[in-house]
Amino acid sequence: MPHGRIAVERFRDVDLVPLESVLQTCAFCNSSRNGSTDTDNMAPCKPHFHFQNGDCSKCGIFSAWSDGKTDVCYVLPPKKMELITLLIGAAVVVTLTFIALQILHAPLIIVDAKSHVADSTQAESKKIFMLSVQGPIVDLHKGMSRLVHRWVRYRARGTGLIWLDYEQKKSNAVKVQNTGDRKLLLKDMNPPFDCASCKGSLHAADFLKLLSLLAACISVTAMLPAIIKVAVISGNGVGHVFVTAIFVTLPLVAAAALLHFPVAWLIQWLYRRTPFSRALDEYRKQITCKEDTGPDAAHPRNQGLQVLILHGLWKHFESFILDRNMHFVVANIVRPLTRSKQVSFVTLWGGRQLDYFVSHCWGANFSHFVRSIQCHALSKEGPTSWFDAAYWICSFANNQWNIGAELGNDPMGSAFAHALTSGIKGVAMVLDEEVQPLTRVWCLFEFFLSTRERLELVFVTNAGVVGDDRCSSFDIALEVGKKIKSLQVKSLAEDLRPRILERCHDIDASVSAAALRCACDLAKAEVLKEEDYDRITDLVWDPEALRRDAACVFVSRFILQEDIFDQPNGTADGSAAKRHLQMLLDFLVEFVKPHFELTERLVAALWRKASCLEDWDAMTSLLLGDGELAADQHLAIAFLAEATVRVAFDDWLANNTMEAEALLQRAARALCPRLPTLLSTFQSEKAAMLRTASLCNYLLRFCAQSPPGPTGGLLAGSAGEPVARALRSLFLRQTDLEALEHLALAWAHLLELCSGARPVLHDLVKSLYDTFLQLAPLVGKPSQGLLGCMVPMPDTLLATAQRLRILAKAYDVSLCDVEGFVSTALSVVDERVQTGTVEPELTVTLLELLALISVRHAGQLMQPPLPAVAADVRDERQLQQASTAAEDLLELATGFLTKDEDHRLKSAAFGVALCTLSAWWNAAHFGKTEEVKPWFCQLPDALQDALANHLGKLLAEANQVPTESVLVSGMPEPGDLLKSSAFSHLFVLLQKGVASTESVPSDAERIKTARLCCLMVATCRHAQVAAGSLPSVVLSQARSRREDLQQVAWTLLRRLRKEAHVGPTQAEDFFTTLLAAVKFLHKDQGTAIAKDLSFRLLQHVGVGKLTPPLQKALLNTLRRGVVNAAAGSAAGFLEALTPWITKHVVEDILIDNLASWAKEQSNQALQEAGLEKLLEACENTVKKLDPESPEKPSKRRRITKGGNRKTPTSTQEIKDAMELP
């Protein structure tokens, strides 16, 4: 074997020692055994022994190495290979442990943290605390990150939240749980009140146990094999080598210890920056005023903050403050900004003399607070100078680093009292919806003091000032009334909210859409909880269009920063379109990652509603990386662009809409000249490359199929050659088969647009062709000059065959090389049949390739000459041998079906056999010419039996799958040229199966394989197949308990029934096939089962009376059934045919005629076959149709060919109509 030979070459010069010799070292040397004491005549000791006191002794465990020729033992092995092996193992252990240490030691920087209500449906639900963090631990794979969180507790530091920050006395380390991408949930501690933070960090507290476990696992997997290897090679004991490995590891551990602190500092420095910290740094740069250092600068009367500065603070941090209150602003903004100087916020900007005092509650919304102050300033100072008014606001005027001094020992000595008594213009009390200031002690004190000082005190809201001339009391009263009304509406909405959210997921899509529209009103009234938004957002990916469209409207209005539904009322400009696309990418990354394939459903909901999908300049800019996109966003834009083009193309192809055509034209103009750049941009990302290849395919297909215009000339001439070269390069490098399929189809369309692409394609086919012919003969044989191993690079052979197979679907790769290419491929497949040495994946690939080639041969040989596809020259001599190749392929299929144990290979052989038979039969009968003599493959009996046996086994296994576990829907309809055939679907399924590690097919794979094989039988018109048992096996599935298997029987029945109307011969064939199916099931499972099948089949034949030709064919088939039953050995068979009579599809006179004829044929065999039952059915049917009188005409009427309504009443009229004798 190859591995054995390589081992011999590697250790040719090394003395190998058996493992038992390593584990059981001897105690004496050879000379000691011989009893010699003459040191001069003694032979050298064994390796790792040394001569001592006239004897050979084993080296000690701490100095374990010796060559046996001296009396000295060494600490380290003298041979370089042994030392290097131990060094490599030690380096791996130390490096991986060091990395684990750095990851666990590095803090998790808090990006955002806030409290939530655990269960919004309960009035007194506990609060939970969610954190968004960044750090090495959360950047690990999701499973590893969860493992760390399960083992480790964290200490929070610097969050500004007293209940959360770690204290040694409290020992309040916390546990966390992963809830999303870089999002954590606090597990064993609940916040006592609503709170939030954008600063601080989490530090792993007890990670040494986890680190020790990881180090042990790493040592076992990395160091132990190295120790055993050195012990085997050197012959030294494992324990001795183990101690030596420790000595080798110690210097590396010391080096790692020295590197720990700089590396830890570097990691913390890399992760220290958050969006909020950057915003703080940017705001610090805006503080340009000099501090007032006068004697009264710190007095409260000089701590006034301008409205302009307050407004600027709010706008700068608006995206972080959101709906949070003053507690958040002070802890996260004011204190960090003033930490270095330990002064008040106003002091940083230089305080102004007070104009007004503000009384407020810190629990109110900060944005509401700022707007209220603006309204007050505008009311009191006018529109020209309102922004210059100075206000005393405790959170900004007080030094938050010395609150004790600001409050003083007495309220009257506090900074609040000094400000109120400093001669200000008035007091503004900011009221929120809950009127919280009137419930706070300090606000009541301020109210009392301002009244005592006779200061003007006004109530302020974000709607205006009560009593202001510009905002009359009527306006304020109306605003208060609205708020009261909204509170009442909210109370009612709170009761309805659970029921509306439940109806959003109703099984009826129309009900769900109506509920989603109600949810929009709830969101507008601010009634929905945060977790409710996630439940509604999940419906964007629902397969039902109504539900999906309504959910997408909700997302656009309440999840995204801007409403992107801007059509048909308007169209976004370039910057707005790019901004909207960025929002869509963020939404996809947050809610759908990693299942980006669901992007198509989002695009379908946005189609012709969001103009950003039509701006392909913006889309192209993002695709080509002109913007700064993260890796996930870059992947998402590939899915978004491909889904948009695919949805537009399907709309254009089905409805020929102008909007779809305009979008595709813009996409083609933007992307076609840049296709090489686009393909190279995504070539390293597998998922993105698949979508890019699909995008390229649809664009080129549109350019090739669209009416003559500007898009057709985008790639004409030399403009298309770079695209051809890019496609060639990618086709050779890509490993994803689905992406290769798209690239091959893209090339097919490019050939119609650019003549210069043909030589590039021909060169690609030629290189693959030569590689296959070079490697294929080496299968199962030693190759020369490649280290004497077996087939060199088997993956190369498989990859070459796969690419040829994919190209063969669109182009001809060996049209005129039957003797060379086809015979070589056949020999490789035959090697699998004879010896089983060829891998299943390669075998399935070659079988599909040979079937595709055989189909092309049949078409080229039997049909009129077709235009060359890939510059192949038609060779008549080679084509004359195509029939022999087809027969050889059928012989190989027989071998697979009878000898091979792999069920997937048997199914592949089944598909190849039916495909080959169908192709040659169709070519001979539907494409024959006068110059060419028709020829088609014969179906040997052995192959027919093998096909029937395999199909029977497939159906038996599929019927054993419980109906409630798997239900397969959708299948290719025979004759649909716009969709893939059953043959193509079958081999896609088989390719996935043989490429997987699962040797046993899943239940879904069993059902799909059985259905597709039955569909291939349903589409095969080969005379021997139609006359054999395969159609009977398929039609027997009409009795299957599985609905998905019943469908294949009805598919075959529809095709046969349609052909039965062509002529009398086809009608006879139709009922003959039905009779064979009943006979097949009667022989296998008895009369009752066969009778039930007859009933089911006749139900699908037609409703009411059949046409005269079909009635004639049915009666003739029944006569043949009676004749066959008369031959004997068919007990109960005629009883199984009684539904053919009782279904009332034949005129009663003819039924009576049949009964008379059958009576004349009566014998013992017919009696056993159930003739009496058949005659009884005839009699009952006639009486039931016309119970009053045989001469009375039936009320049912037929429409004759001439259009006159006439019912034949006499026997002769019916015989004439049906041309019966």
UniProtKB/TrEMBL annotation:
Presence of the UniProt keyword Transmembrane in the record: yes
Gene Ontology CC: chromatin; cohesin complex; nucleus
TM spans (from-to): 83-104, 207-228, 240-267
A Pfam family: HEAT_SCC3-SA
Biological process per Gene Ontology, one example term: sister chromatid cohesion
InterPro entries according to UniProt: ARM-type_fold, Cohesin_Scc3/SA, HEAT_SCC3-SA
PANTHER family with a match to the protein in the record: LD34181P-RELATED, STROMAL ANTIGEN
Biased composition (Basic and acidic residues): 1182-1193
SUPFAM superfamilies xref list: ARM repeat
Region (Disordered): 1182-1221
Lineage: Eukaryota, Sar, Alveolata, Dinophyceae, Suessiales
Protein name: HEAT repeat-containing protein 1
Domain Cohesin subunit SCC3/SA HEAT-repeats: 602-849
GO molecular function: chromatin binding
